[in-house]
């Protein structure tokens, strides 16, 4: 059942091969994300990150390249690996469509422009796996999901955000789920919250005003302006001096979503 389904305590974004489930809320004591892989009819859990309010440690487990499980909680979240994805529950609402597609090559910047390319190039699933890392992203029509675990320094990032392509770059309207753990969590970007159950609607984007082409925070959201581009890649000025690079032919792409019909 492809699509994005949400409720106040659970959100599931499911494609033909992948699914990411986010759970937690203001009144709950657990915040977590689960990553599944399989077929359209059956997907099994291959990664989990979870944090309880009463504890400082973020727990994780994921299957490495050879199937060995990497975890810091062998008697807890490790046991979830392999569980099957249950279909969306009664009461969950469909808030976004996912249209799985065969591999295709999106248009160039010359053919379609910055805004259209930032939309079509990002659609779909990217995935990479190594003994010391699991990285996943899914971009639907409206939402961008991330599931990333790097055990070496307990660098964990699971999130759901609404990022809107514009001719000037990408506008971050807001993040409504964030499980961001790094080391002892003293870094200012570390945060843990969930505000599930919304409709993921795109608000009108305010005019871009930025200084020196840098990432710009506004009362409405964050602008990541275009730093440079070619027909094959678009580079945005990211936060903290980072660069966010998007490729027309992304080698990490594992599943393609078809753009909506015009």
SSE blueprint and pairings:
Layout: E1 3-6, E2 10-14, E3 18-23, E4 30-38, E5 43-52, E6 58-63, E7 69-71, E8 93-96, E9 100-101, H1 109-112, H2 114-120, E10 124-130, E11 133-139, E12 144-150, E13 155-166, E14 169-181, E15 191-194, E16 216-217, E17 222-229, E18 233-237, E19 243-247, E20 253-257
Antiparallel strand pairs: 1-2, 1-8, 2-3, 3-4, 4-5, 5-6, 6-7, 9-20, 10-11, 10-20, 11-12, 12-13, 13-14, 14-15, 14-17, 16-17, 17-18, 18-19
Explain the overall architecture.
It is built from two helices and 20 strands. By secondary structure, it is mainly beta. The strands form two sheets. Strands 9, 10, 11, 12, 13, 14, 15, 16, 17, 18, 19 and 20 form a twelve-stranded antiparallel beta sheet that branches. It has an eight-stranded antiparallel beta sheet with strand order 7-6-5-4-3-2-1-8, with no helix packed on it. A hairpin with a 3-residue loop joins strand 2 and strand 3.
């Amino acid at each position: 059942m492809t699509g994005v389904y949400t409720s106040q305590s659970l959100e599931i974004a499911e494609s033909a091969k992948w699914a990411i489930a986010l759970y937690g809320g203001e009144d709950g004591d657990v915040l977590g994300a689960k990553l599944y892989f399989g077929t359209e009819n059956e997907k099994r859990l291959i990664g989990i990150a979870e944090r309880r309010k009463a504890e400082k440690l973020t727990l994780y487990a994921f299957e490495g390249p050879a199937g060995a499980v990497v975890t810091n909680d062998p008697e807890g979240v490790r046991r979830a690996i392999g569980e099957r994805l249950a279909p969306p529950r009664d009461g969950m609402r469909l808030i976004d469509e996912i249209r799985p597609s065969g591999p295709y090559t999106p248009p160039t910047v010359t053919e379609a422009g910055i805004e259209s390319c930032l939309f079509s190039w990002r659609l779909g699933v990217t995935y990479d796996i190594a003994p010391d890392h699991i990285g996943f992203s899914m971009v639907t029509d409206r939402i961008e999901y991330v599931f990333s675990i790097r055990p070496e320094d307990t660098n964990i990032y699971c999130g759901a955000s609404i990022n809107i392509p514009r001719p000037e770059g990408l506008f971050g309207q807001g993040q409504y789920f964030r499980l961001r753990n790094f080391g002892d969590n003293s870094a200012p970007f570390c945060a843990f919250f969930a505000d599930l159950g919304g409709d993921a609607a795109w608000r009108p984007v305010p005019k871009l005003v930025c200084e020196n082409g840098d990432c710009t925070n506004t009362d409405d959201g964050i602008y990541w302006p275009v730093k440079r581009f070619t027909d094959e890649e678009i580079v945005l000025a990211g936060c903290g001096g980072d660069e966010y690079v998007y490729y027309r032919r992304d080698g990490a792409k594992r599943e393609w979503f078809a753009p909506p019909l015009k």
